[in-house]
Records
---
Amino acid sequence: MALLGGNKSDSEHDEIQLFYGKGLSEQPLPRYEIPKDTMPAGAAYDFIMDELRDEGSARQNLATFVQTWMEPEAQQLIMNTLDKNAVDKSEYPQTAEIEERCVNIIANLWHADQRDEFIGTSTVGSSEACMLGGMAALFRWKKQARELGLDMSKRPNLVISSAYQVVWEKFGVYWDVELREVPVTKECLALDPEKAIELIDDYTICVVGIMGLTYTGRYDDIKALDAAITTYNETSKVKVYIHVDAASGGLYTPFMEPDLEWDFRLDNVKSINTSGHKYGLVYPGVGWVLWKDKTWLPEELIFKVSYLGGDMPTMAINFSRPASLIVAQYYLFLRLGFEGFRQVHARTQKAAKYITKEIEKLDLFEVINGADQLPVIAWTLKEDPGVAWDLYDLSDFLRMRGWQVPAYPMPADLEEMVVLRAVIKGDFSYDSALLFVRDLKASIEKLNKSHIIPNANNHPKTSHGFTH
Ligand SMILES: *Cc1c(COP(=O)(O)O)cnc(C)c1O
């Protein structure tokens, strides 16, 4: 990297080329004001790389669901298309066509009936996609509620597991929709369909099912939820439907458990979102949202934008963004095919299962999710483990060896339960799993020998590097 600092154009400057940083390394980098003068490209490059050097290695970041590795060919494609703006559909019609193909492929993986005329779009990620799914449900509910003469001054609500991702909290705040939370409990760590039904009323815009709770990697039972809603709708005035937040599972489950019914095969599932940058295997910056058929996306949310002489429909919230990650998603569909995705995910699950087995052998922990659904291991200290340290300490000690494994409390009603969570991804080899287990054991050994005064730790009992 430092080599770049010595390129020829820099030496054209009539100044002494110092060993590093071209004599500029004695100055602090600007923090508050744009610098007055220029700097050689190589020096700017080196300085910024230096700033980012100690941030932690993405490959050891087991806190995130987001991809941390792509093939060189995919990276090249991304570089080649960074200058294309995905929104300029008339300017880049083939890029628009590639986006459409991705929507078709995902619709097919989710069993949309082609005759139903599904509709969908790419987004920046699941946050934008969830927002769109929620907005469509809200607008649809409003129309229904007005027709039925409901009191429109009352606040609508959305029913969801208490282990939701923060985007739904944002949705509630932005749109003044009450989140009615179905608490997760020790016995039922995913959405309890019966309890969900109890929370539904005429002001419910939709029930959100989650395919892959961020806390544990477990799936809500969407099929049971669908059946319960069918029964509810038989007698209800306002009909209720399901949006599935499949940020993590949407491009994992179809390959790993093709017979599991959670998608458009179910009557009441009308929209689904996923993050292409989670198990869709793309670098951060792409998500997808699809509706089973056009009628579930209210007309008001489809905008016709006249752009560069064309007329194009757009339903995403964001306007300009690089086409690169959409192209990269298509690359992965092409490159891996169904069988390739299955193999990559199966290997990831195998590594996660190996780690699970080793954690269980230590006889200190209780595994809450051992990669049975998403390849996520969530574990907690068993009762009376006979140690003086807690999971926050263990998380810190793993961090010293470069591993980012967050410790955090479970949501409301289960806050006393603290878990550690490791998300295993496609770039995690069996050897990485061996190294992780080695470091986990070494961290525990070190903790056992360190001078921790029991009950005297003052860790804040809040999320600790917990990312989604
Ligand atoms: C990650 C995640 C999100 C947010 O997705 P981004 O793609 O990061 O915006 C929403 N819901 C769930 C369940 C998630 O796991």
---
Amino acid sequence: MEHLKIASDNYVAFTFFIGTMAMMAASVFFFFELNNTSPKWRTSVLVSGLITFIAAVHYYYMRGYNLETGESPTFFRYVDWILTVPLMCVEFYLITKKAGAKVALLWKLIFASLVMLVTGYFGETIDRDHSVMWGVISGGAYFYIAYLIWFGEVASLAQTAGAQVAKATRVLAWFVLVGWAIYPLGYILGTPGGLFGMQLVADPAAASHAMDIVYNIADAINKIGFGLVIYALSRNED
Ligand SMILES: *C/C=C(C)/C=C/C=C(C)/C=C/C1=C(C)CCCC1(C)C
């Protein structure tokens, strides 16, 4: 079998490689720290570890796929997101639960995240001609999630859940508003006619590479960063 090497100027393959390593390391960290986490926060830290672990497995696969084919692993990218983004919704539910968060709130967040991801997938794959329309619908669901976290139920519950939970929720809300906003940027870069018919990167292969690099950076920031905020909360609050 041919031995596949990562060329030193292949930034796509390189970020898949680093992403795999970072997700693995973060998972080991969260799982091992469970032992000295107070029982009250154990589930939250466990979920942080599950998010990075699921991503590690997908990144390991996507790294190989990209190296062998040179293509963007869109399908498994979305499989990863469809598993991990709802788990991030579970994190919001868990930290506001003691202030009275209901399961209905969790379902609202999960439903909106599924609408966001499924419509994004349509725009990237089966209906690329209408990528702007799908992107706008996906963006609507995204803003609804951001609204719930910044001004809606999540925000008001966090206010009554104690100073540390309120503080952590505020940091996580910034992750959703700024960190998650990197994804539509990748979508715009990679999709033909991405920004209202305007193609930012003209060469289709280069556009798809730019998209993967942006998605890989966003995943590292959002999955590991998000988990670390939960971890910090588990140390500050008892
Ligand atoms: C760990 C993975 C995460 C946090 C993924 C988040 C993904 C998004 C916030 C994606 C959002 C999109 C839009 C808001 C519009 C264009 C299509 C998407 C799916 C890229």
